[in-house]
Amino acid sequence: MEQSSISSLREAVFVDTTLRDGAQSPGVFFDRPTKMAIVTSLSRIGVQEIEIGSPCLGENEIEDLRTLLSLPLPSVLFPWLRPLDCDYDQAMELGFTRVHISFPTSKNHRLSVKGMGESEILTRLECYIRRFRSEGREVSIGLEDGSRADPAFLLEMVMAVKEAGGVRVRYCDTVGSHHPARIAERVAMLLGPGLPVEVHCHNDLGMATANTVAAFHAGARFLSTTVTGVGERAGNAAMEEVAFALRYSEEEESDCGLDLPGLVHLSRQVHSAIGRTLSPYRPVVGSRIFHHSSGIHVDGVLKNPENYELFPPEQVESKRKIVVTHQTGKAGIRNVLERMGYHPHNDLLERLVPIIREEGWRLKGIVPPQTILNRFISLLGRDPGEVPAGEKL
Known about the structure:
Blueprint: E1 13-16, H1 32-44, E2 49-51, H2 59-69, E3 76-78, E4 80-81, H3 85-94, E5 98-104, H4 107-113, H5 118-134, E6 138-144, H6 151-164, E7 168-173, H7 180-190, E8 197-201, H8 208-217, E9 222-225, H9 239-248, H10 260-273, E10 291-292, H11 295-303, E11 321-322, H12 330-339, H13 346-363, H14 369-380
Parallel strand pairs: 1-2, 1-9, 2-3, 4-5, 5-6, 6-7, 7-8, 8-9, 10-11
């Protein structure tokens, strides 16, 4: 599973942290049945690794971890741990074969959050990796607040992880301060010692998805994301956005390894479970992202959907819809009438367009299909009952 250069990239490995980082978002709570359903769905759509929580939260969390770990799933389930003996003991007692341990890396986090110096971090890091490895467990190490850390110390940590036998490091943009070019540089640097790199991006500046995709193309094969991007503060990189970006944003599409329609369904399911309203214009999963009204766009979409749609609506369990507003032209109005069974000639449409656009200005929004039909029939100067559907007019 090691990854050393961008030239050998084949498939992203998604590392889900919805039940750990996502659950840290204030007001979000996943009960045990919901956690079981989410983990099962994640595994079913192809997520290979799932971070399912942290034993430091107490007995209820520990019992949830025990239940989730007992599920017969192909995905690797693992906990998030602090570099403390109590967390080590709990992970061992629960029987995890893989664990993740987070260490502070920036000066502020080392001194004010964890009260640890560089030498102590390196000593603990090597100690815990060797202890887990002696018990047959695999260990990944988190570089907490890595985006604000001294690059030289980060490299020292990566080399220590490799020497001690850790499987990879997780580079964390903990406060979302990176931009894509910068994180690509950091990932390239961290890959130098030859250890695989995972990225974990927050969305404080709205760049978590972009940063994650940039990191992937720089060689970070392992992508830590959450379903719908739920997480602390502004959230994390959204799995569905990253997956679709990898699949569709390049000339040569990458295989993200996930069942995309299944991921979209899960995204809506999780957003409903956390009791938050999903914006209808949210990328990938928004209910209105395939609604078209502008005259030029409608004409282009009706001729060939690829003119203005990156992927088909069926890919996200959605449907294309032509909506008439003050900006809609002949193609859109014709489409609405044809869907109702009427086939107007071009000269009649020329007369109808300004009438319907005026309705759009008056309504300050969408013109209902019935209004379009009424104005159309009025132009004919005939009683509605005298205009059979299907007649070319």
